[in-house]
Write a structure and sequence with these properties.
Blueprint (H helix, E strand, L loop, with lengths): L1 H53 L3 H5 L12 H8 L3 H31 L3 H15 L2 H15 L5 H25 L3 H9 L4 H12 L1 H17 L2 H6 L7 H9 L6 H21 L1 H9 L5
């Protein structure tokens, strides 16, 4: 009968529909993998080219078309480690470490206060901090330059740290404040009933819960301080020079030592990659937790 034919055709139709969905899903997955592979290749190609160029001689870097098969040399890396450039890397590490410590010490209590003691005053303070973050760099560096010149701290890492903190602290405060806003106040109220103070609540309750975001702020502060050029270039010249300033000074000469520039660039990437790799799990948690209430 007609009903029997329709009943028998239904499983076949469902099977074809399921196969079509599976084929469409497989095609979409393959297309996604191809897109990611192309994006990864385009992103890593400059890094690969810099790494290859750092192993060439100065002559080989100028040959056109460039040679892909050559005898590698580590002369550029010898110049980096044995040519007196280690002090510059130490300056960058010092600036980044001090920035992380001071940014967290200053921003954690500030973020907690702005989150828990809400009023018109705290709203104005929060907006003022945000305006500091949005201020143009040249508007910040001129007063700092004049101040450091008067106190004799030009060409020191202290001057660079001062400028960096004006950028990093507001950024850290806003990230931590948004995270603390999502922590239920009832958790602290239970601790207050048991006799805990505000500082104890901050140290023993808020800080452990906010650990992923704190790590995220530390990593972002490190990356900014490690890669920042403008403030360090204006405020330092020799003793307080950081790695980006060193690269800029070498690139600004009449002749370009491409292997040396590439070797310095590769060496400058290593600390940031290692730091980000060690705490990548905390970064992912810090950026995703609290996004959905």
């Amino acid at each position: 009968s007609v009903t029997g034919v329709q009943t028998c055709a239904l499983p076949i139709y469902d099977s074809c529909k399921g196969d079509a969905k599976m084929t469409s899903s497989r095609s979409l997955r393959v297309a996604s993998y191809v897109f990611l592979a192309l994006y990864l290749g385009i992103s890593l190609l400059p890094l690969l080219w810099v790494g290859i160029s750092s192993l060439k001689t100065h002559y080989n870097t100028l040959i056109l078309p460039p040679k892909l098969i050559f005898k590698p040399t580590f002369e550029a890396y010898k110049n980096v480690f044995l040519g007196g450039m280690g002090a510059v890397f130490l300056n960058s590490l010092k600036v980044a470490a001090v920035d992380i410590v001071l940014a967290l010490v200053l921003s954690i209590p500030a973020a907690y206060s702005l989150s828990r003691f809400k009023s018109k005053v705290t709203e104005n303070i929060a907006f003022w901090l945000l305006s500091l973050r949005m201020a143009p760099a040249f508007g910040i560096v001129i007063p700092i330059y004049i101040l450091m010149q008067h106190v004799g701290l030009l060409d020191t890492t202290i001057a660079v740290n001062t400028a960096h903190l004006l950028i990093n602290v507001p950024f850290a405060v806003w990230l931590l404040k948004s995270y603390i806003d999502d922590i239920p106040v009832e958790i602290e109220e239970s601790a207050f009933v048991d006799g805990a103070t505000r500082w104890q609540s901050l140290i023993y309750i808020i800080l452990p819960i906010s650990a992923p975001m704190i790590v995220t702020v530390a990593v972002l502060t490190f990356i900014f301080s490690w890669n920042e050029l403008f403030f360090a270039f204006v405020l330092t010249s020799s003793k307080g020079m950081t790695v980006p300033v060193l690269v800029a000074s070498l690139a600004g000469s009449m002749t370009f030592n491409w292997p040396l520039l590439c070797a310095i660039s590769i060496c400058s990437m290593v600390p940031a990659f290692i730091f980000a790799f060690l705490v990548q799990r905390h970064i992912a948690r810090g950026l995703t937790m609290g996004a959905v209430k």
